[in-house]
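Hi there,

I know you've been waiting on this one. I reran it after we fixed the sequence typo, so this is the corrected version. Both the input and the resulting structure follow.
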Amino acid sequence: MRMADLLFVTMDAGGNVPPMLGIARATAARGHRVRLLGHERLRARVEAEELELTPFKQTRRWDASHEQSVLRWAPMLTDPLLGEEVRAACADRRPDVAVVDCMLAPVHDAVDRLGIPRVVLTHTLKSYYDGPYLYLAGAAARLRGHRVTAQWNRARANLVTTVAELDPAARRRQAPNVRWTGVVGPTTAPTAHRADPPLVLVSMSTNGFRGQRKSLQRIVDALGELPVRAVVTTGGVFAPDVLAAPRNVTVVGYTDHLAIMPECSLVVSHGGHSTVFRALAHDAPLLVIPSSRMTDQPQVGRAIADAGAAICLSRSASTRAIRSAIETLLREPRFHGVASELGARVRAVDGASTAADIIAEVVADP
């Protein structure tokens, strides 16, 4: 197999980062020379994977952790300086293949103009990008002269890092380059026992959304009325001490989800693809409370609820409604049963390795 120089282009947007890092790590493990181009805030995470980061130097200032309207994302995703960043990085060291986050419209066009083979990374349900995304960020991209669907379709491959059976887009006709890889995440069955009393993990988002703090406080209040133990992570969006927590609830900024999930009986999530599928990989059912209707979160939540492993509530759900949903999820074994079935399906395919195989095909036949 020919060894190649690969450029992975991403941004600090929360759940999009783990699959990019997982695939980059799997690709580097095969002997390829790999570097990532993205926000400086990602350095610690990139270097923890023993990978190289080339930081953005020109793009607008960006901090996804602030509580803010999702509409503020569009200027970042369509920033023309993203194209300048990738042109500078490629002038310094021209890659054989570029793997680009599906959201970075200026980067896709810049890579194509440079004549570099390109792979798209779609890091959640493709049904979201085929629908709501096109009417929001896709419309903003069109105003800048970018046609995102055309960008995705003319790439050498479009890697969709989810379970095809849970993605409504897989039931519709797609461009020939679309490849479902499976989830990039845990592939071994959980071995730890479920805690007694039940352990609940609450992980809403490392991105800030309006109303997130109030929603999280209602979740904490609901947990305080139940015979459970809970760990609540604020994801760095705000300090743990802003939440009033009862004795059975521990609030922290960050914790290692992979360390705690094997003991969890339930995960409460905003519906971020990465968190949801990590929970399923550990056979845990979910309560999904989307932080924003304009993201993929409602679609991810609906997909898992339709499969029978979750209950979905709105962001404005009352403490009483949240408490009732948690009681139902813990009391009725059918939710855990379906979560276990889906967990086996998630673990059956190593999404990072499958994606690395597809990238190797592009390297071998540029």
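Quick highlight: Residues 105 and 148 are 6 Å apart (CA to CA).

Best,
R. S.
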